[in-house]
Amino acid sequence: MITLLKNAKVIDPAHGKDGVKQDIYIRDGRIIAKPAESEKIGQVYDLNGKIVMAGAIDMHSHIGGGKVNIARMLLPEYQAMRQLEEPEAHICGANCSHLATPNTTDTGMRYIEMGYTAAFEPAVLAVNARQAHMEMGDTPMIDKGGYAMLGNDDYLLRLLSQNADQKTINDYVAWTLHATQTIGIKVVNPGGISAFKFNERRQDLDQQHAFYQITPRRILQALSRAVHDIGIAKPLHVHCNNLGVAGNFQTTLDTMGASDGLPMHLTHIQFHSYGTEGDKKFSSAAANIAEAINKNKHITADVGQILFGQTVTASGDNMMQHLNAKVANPKKSVIMDIECDAGCGVVPFKYRDENYVNALQWAIGLEVFLSVEDPWRVFLTTDHPNGAPFTSYPHLIRLLMDKTFRNDAFDKLNLDAQAMSNLKALNREYSLYEIATMTRAAPAKLIGLHDRGHLGVGAAADITVYTEQADKEAMFAKPDLVFKDGELVVKEGKVIKVVWGATHTAKPAFDLGVEKEIKQYFDRYHTMQMDHFKISNDHIAEDGRNHVINHTQG
Amino acid sequence: MNIQQNTMHTCPACGLLCDDISSEAVSSRQLSCGKAAAFYARVTTGVTPQVGGRAASLAEAVTAAANILKQSKAPLVAGSSTDVHGARALVGLSHRTHAGMTHLNASSTLRNMKVLQHKGWQTTTLTEVRNRADVILMIGTDVVSHNARFFERVVWVPEAMFTAPSARKIIYLGGDQLDTTPGISPEGVAPQVIDCATAQLPAVVSCLRALVMNKPLSAAAVAGVPIDQLRALAEILKAAKYATLVWVSKDLDYDHADLTIENITETVVALNQKSRAMGLSLGGSDGDTSVNYAHTWLNGVIIDAPAWESHDTVVWVNSYSPQAMPPAGTQPVIVLGAPDSTFDAAPAVFIPVATPGLDCAGQQFRVDGSVTLPLTAVKPADAPTLSQVIAMIEAELEGASA
């Protein structure tokens, strides 16, 4: 059956279309060229005057895996009860989680209601990947995927300290992608999570690791080279050293040079853009960071905007989270060392606009957004739930698109923070085209989802339909219609049909001979068999709800 | 890359999930662990469903179960001894029938969860302990009563990356009728044992925490334990490169035991100000970690303890403990259980379901919470899976409401 979306006003940056009036035809979940006159059109939606974009893609959102579930367990005070309507009531219980700790069903429902059709978990501990996939598999409505964390796993650090050749590292990285069913590689506080296990409390970019005698810079060089050489699209996803530390902008700038010019993505860069100026020795270095991003074309970044209110931070960076636990609100936290592979730190936070640091963090994120010129290289994230729940995206979009709204919010901030920010001097207002770029076309390109994030022939028919409104928060909070793989699943901001989405992976070719050494390592040091570490397609598919979509051959 | 066929099985008989069980070891009954031996010796074939104690077809039993649930105003899904797949199905059934849900280990799980929810904690996992721990302090437990192969798999291992395993310092603090012989090192060094009854642990552990935090203590002894001995223990913990404080919540079975657990975990937090230390909660059985975790990600809340009296029907699942049943007098009971279930009185409905890791495949969380392992059908049996049976019951319930 063919579905026709008529008279759509299409914003499709992947094809340079900005408000082009167009008809879209869908068959078997895909966008097709205009069919022959003889072919029957089954359904027609007249979208006259409506804005039509591809489904949005969240390229960095903590939606599944150990730390996320610990956050849910940690914070029972966020829970409430609610009345649900069908079809959501059919698959979901009456517990209503806080937006920072949604259960898996809520996660899928709230994303699709906002016109998002995919989200990527950026911190999959390799050894915990099976859990991450279980949770993502229980997340309805949207497509999922993950980035596997390397760079604090003892296997890689041993390889580097033994001067292993790059090919061995490349094979190990590719093997990890296969074994964990992920689509990208992330490094968190390179070397630092491991160093914490040896009682180090900070790890700078050029500081030798206490045990392995290698530097974070060396880890970044090796991993960015590996990611490049094995030929996956997604550049190395880097959570820099010194997260949250005043003066860390210099580490961030230095990190940009650590990949020898190879593509690198710096994540939640707001948390890494801090100076030490002023009486409180905490200032915005957003201008320095944005200037460097503008100049360094190999760098992309997502912002990790904070917004005010209660949330919980969940990170693999247990070294820095252990320090942050002092300012937890409510005052409790979970810090873990995990399997000679990684760590995790879960710390609740309440960001307040009257607090100097929080207010400046808010301004720093927006300064970065407004000062990075190319919307293809800066991505809209709150680092859910670390900066704010993903459900605050419509509010964030309005802050970017509406200078008056933004300045009114700025005027309510802590006055000392206002004095330290140049936000009001930034007059830029994002256009719909730029928003569509940073939330659709660019993330699809960055991750390597060739058939998502655009509305060209052959694309998956993940499509969001909006009524244009002056209030952009209202517009983006509640699309008129959302299609997932060609099926109408949301109408007037409400889910009308439950679907389950797929899991996106990258499985580049590699030399299977690398497994011999890996197996020896498992047999000597681990408490599980190497074969049990690997996740099969069948484990992802399980009960038939999920399936794997691979984006490489080999 | 081909995902190779697993040559080793994962044993779900306790929370340790040892995944080095060969088919040969199962068939020749050469298993070093009593729990594993008993698990793999189970006979689970050729059992038929029952309604009111009489043999019935699967369809008849499903219809009977659905009819009871239709009549029920406040059902409870309990036992819940299953794996992640089973837990998902049980959560689905609880949504569909507006049932409460609990697990047969809920009360001991909650002791830990109260601490997590009040203060949080700092914990580690088995492979970290295996490669790093130079001091292991077991509080109120010998571990081996629950996790028989703990010393074999984690402590007295041939080699470790960052420490000499045979030189580890093993200390037992308190506990009743402990088997401390596994704590003897391969070179014959006996563990340190600081005796006190489990009931005395609240006072002893809080003193240990105070000493680690450098608080002054004027008493000479607490619960019969000399303070100097605890002070020396505190110094050992502070001097360790990676001290690991182990407890088993099931062994701390007294009122307000969560406060003892919190004192253990806050001792770890205090140690981590200057050195490295971590907590490790062991035990775990009947898929309790898996069911609690899956319940949490699906519902946003942890598993709670049951209030039996407020429910008028119980759906009981006992995949790993065929002898386990709800409290006497509970009725009606629908057992979706191990084929080798044993009953004092016949339940209203009994539907044998496959046990994950024995009769069918599955996935299970290890007790340390970070590692999940695949389970294989070691001895494939004819019973349907829990998910299949629940799907059939739900279809009957749907039919009724359509």
Automatic annotation (TrEMBL), chain A:
Source species: Methylophilus medardicus
Xref: NCBIfam families: one_C_dehyd_A
Domain Amidohydrolase as annotated: residue spans: 43-496
GO molecular function: hydrolase activity, acting on carbon-nitrogen (but not peptide) bonds
Domain of life: Bacteria
Name listed for the protein in its UniProt record: Formylmethanofuran dehydrogenase subunit A
Phylogenetic classification of the source organism: Bacteria, Pseudomonadati, Pseudomonadota, Betaproteobacteria, Nitrosomonadales
Pfam families: Amidohydro_3 (PF07969)
From TrEMBL, chain B:
SUPFAM superfamilies: Formate dehydrogenase/DMSO reductase, domains 1-3 (SSF53706)
Highest taxon listed in the record's lineage: Bacteria
Gene3D superfamilies documented for this protein: TPP-binding domain (3.40.50.1220)
The protein's name in its UniProt record: Formylmethanofuran dehydrogenase
